[in-house]
Design a protein that fits this description.
Blueprint (H helix, E strand, L loop, with lengths): L10 H5 E3 L5 E4 L11 H7 L11 E4 L2 E4 L10 E2 L1 H9 L1 E3 L10 E3 H10 L4 E3 L13 E3 H11 L4 E3 L6 E3 L3 H5 L6 E3 L14 E3 L3 H8 L4 E3 L10 E3 L3 H7 L1 H45 L4 E9 L1 H7 L2 E3 L3 E3 L2 E8 L7 E9 L12 E8 L9 E6 L2 H6 L15 E8 H4 L9 E11 L3
Antiparallel strand pairs: 1-2, 3-4, 3-5, 6-7, 8-9, 10-11, 12-13, 14-15, 16-24, 17-19, 18-19, 19-20, 20-23, 21-22, 21-24
């Protein structure tokens, strides 16, 4: 295909007489299949202004003119007979010189150009010439140009099968992971002449694991042999230096055994010291009567009351005793809030005193002044221990039965403004371990 930058692409330029100012006037007379036969015919069909074949013939000031040739504001009237004669005149395609063999009436010429395969167009991909000008070509060549020669066409890399612009292929090959390169050590193909070719992405693995010319350390490097050689020479080196390698290995093994023994002794002493520290701390904790506290801000209270939910706190510790608080928002459908404390199985239970006896205090915080709090306190007695033994013994399951108050406060009173704020209440729990009776 002939690629040019001087093709006229404007269809008006192809079909109509064009003035120096670029304006299009009447039909080009040179496109007529049969030339006008007489002066009378020329007078009836040619524009008195542009000398082209009348384009939308009009009568203006006693002369026939193209409608487009009449200045603005000048009176005119159409001449239908002349228009019909002109529209039936046969003309050639304006691209006949390029090879188009179409001929037809003036009235169908515009429609023909919409489909004419000889009409010049710019490359759909936007390629330009070496001078930077837009390239044009006939429509019939567009498909082949895009397929075979457009520098902006997508082409497939023969190595990675990825698509890149034709002009960028060389740049792509400089980075293509699948592009074959000679081994950096110039090693040859086994059993063949010539250099070994390795995919760009595989070169590091080739050098690290396969290349016979790659410099490598002796496999006994960590034992003290400081020889470096080509990979292909390693077998010979190991055979020749077998006895030296054996001595180095035995010496190194003995040294490492000694170091390991010393480290083990140090670690054992450190562990022994830590065990003594833990035992001392545990004994100190067990000798005290601890107190544990939980400050619990419970949210979404109204919904919990409506659903008659049961809410569990996170576990908390009283010394080494593991505990948990439980709230029944409508205990046994009495419209009362029940609060219970239960002992949970912990990691230090075997070292603790059982059964446990404690004093528990429940404080419902006044959210207005934090002074007039609602307090419920009770010290557990021997009678409680006898009546509820499963609540105080060492837990054998995940937790013991809970013990507390079934009616800390009514739901109605709880929702009063001084306790209830932003759909939450604040409950402080204190558990103080007491000496056994």
């Amino acid at each position: 295909a002939e690629l040019r930058t001087d093709y006229p692409v404007d269809r008006d330029t192809l079909l109509y007489v064009t003035r120096e100012d670029g304006s299009s006037k009447g039909w080009r007379v040179d496109l007529l299949v049969e030339k006008l036969s007489s002066k009378v015919e020329e007078k009836l069909l040619l524009c008195s202004s542009c000398s082209g074949l009348l384009r939308d013939a009009c009568l203006c000031n006693g002369a026939l003119r193209c409608q487009v040739c009449i200045p603005e504001g000048v009176a005119w009237q159409p001449v239908e007979m002349n228009r019909e004669i002109v529209n039936e005149k046969m003309i050639y395609c304006p691209l006949k010189r390029r090879g188009c063999d179409w001929s037809g009436t003036v009235g169908t010429a515009v429609h023909h150009l919409e489909d004419c395969v000889y009409l010049p167009e710019t490359c759909p991909l936007g390629c330009v010439s070496l001078e930077g000008e837009v390239v044009k070509m006939e429509r019939r060549h567009i498909a082949g140009h895009i397929r075979d020669s457009c520098p902006l066409r997508k082409v497939e890399c023969e190595f990675c099968e990825g698509e890149v612009k034709a002009t960028e292929m060389n740049l792509h090959l400089e980075d293509c992971d699948e592009f074959p390169l000679p081994c950096p050590n110039r090693c040859g193909r086994e059993g063949e002449e010539g250099l070994r070719e390795v995919k760009r992405k595989d070169i590091p693995v080739h050098l690290d694991e396969h290349c016979p010319l790659q410099k490598v350390q002796c496999v006994y490097w960590e034992h003290g042999c400081r020889e470096e050689m080509e990979r292909r020479q390693t077998d010979t080196h190991e055979r020749e230096f077998f006895h030296i390698h054996f001595k180095l290995s035995m010496t190194d093994i003995k040294q490492k055994q000694t170091e390991s023994t010393n480290k083990i002794a140090i670690l054992e002493k450190q562990n022994s010291d830590k065990d003594l520290q833990i035992a001392s701390l545990t004994k100190a904790l067990l000798s005290q009567l601890p107190t544990g506290r939980l400050e619990w801000n419970v949210k979404e209270v109204k919904q919990k009351i409506e659903n008659k939910d049961i809410t569990y706190s996170d576990p908390f510790y009283v010394g080494l005793y593991k505990c948990q608080c439980i709230i029944y928002w409508d205990f046994e459908s009495t419209d009362n809030v029940g609060v219970f404390i239960r002992i949970m199985r912990g990691d230090f239970d075997e070292k603790l005193h059982w059964p446990i006896r404690y004093r528990r205090t429940l404080v419902l915080i006044n959210r207005v002044n934090n002074k007039d709090n609602f307090v419920n306190s009770r010290e557990l007695t021997n009678e409680d221990l006898e009546k509820y033994p499963n609540s105080f013994k060492r837990p054998t399951e995940h937790e013991n039965n809970g013990l507390g108050t079934r009616s800390l406060i009514s739901n109605t009173k709880l929702l009063e403004e001084k306790y209830y704020e932003q759909d939450s209440v604040a409950l402080h729990i204190s558990v103080e371990v007491l000496p056994s009776l």
